[in-house]
Amino acid sequence: MESLRFQLSDTQGALTEKTRQWRQLRVDHKAAQEAWAQEKGELEARIAQLETDNNRLRGANGGVDGGEKLQGPPGGDGGTVTITRARMRDAEAKYQKLTDDLAEKTRLSEALHQQLLRAGSGGGGDGDPGAALRRTLVPALTDDQAVARWKAVRDGVRALARRLSGGGGGSGSPGERLKQQQQLQTHDRVRLELEQLSAHWRDYHATARTRPYLLRALVWRYLHTCLFARPWRVWGRELGGAAAQVERALGTAGAEGEERRDWRARTAALLRRACEPDAQVLGDTARGIVEAAEQVAGAADRQRPELERAVADIVAAAAALAADLHRSRCLVLMSDRPGSRLTRGFPVREKTMEVRSRFGSGTAVDLMVSPCLLREDCDNDDYAVLVKAEVIC
Question: What is the pTM of this model?
Answer without folding.
Answer: 0.64
